[in-house]
Amino acid sequence: xxxxxxxxxxxxxxxxxxxDRPELEPGKILVxxxxxxxxxxxxxxxxxxxQYPEEVHLKGCELYIYFPNGAGQSNLPWSSLExxxxxxxxxxxxxxxxxxxEMAEEMEKS
Length: 110
Hints:
The protein is an alpha+beta fold. It has four helices and four strands, in the order αβαββαβα. It has helices at residues 6-14, 40-44, 78-85, 94-109; strands at residues 29-34, 55-59, 62-66, 89-93. It has a four-stranded antiparallel β-sheet with strand order 2-3-1-4. α1 runs antiparallel to α4. The mean pLDDT is 92.
C-alpha cells in the first residue's frame, strides 16, 4: 500500500518539474507515487527515453511524466520504466492529485 500525508501531497504538487508551466494541461501530467526511493542508477537512466515526446522526471519518491499527446497516444515503454525504478508505485494525473489533496484537507478539518 502506498500512502501520502496531506503535506506530502502538497510537496509533490509543489515539486513538480512542470509547476512553472501553467500552459500544460494537468490531465496530461502523471504523478507516480512510489513506495520508496528508487536506486541511484534510476535517476540517470531516463536519457534512453529522450526520443519520445514525453518528459520524464524523477524527484525523490515521485515520478512525473508529461504526455503532450495524452497518455492514451503514448508509445513510451512503461515496462522499461518499471524495471528501471525497481519499486512499485501508483499513478494519477495532476487533476486527480489536486482533488485528493482537497479531500485530505477536508478530512483534516473534521
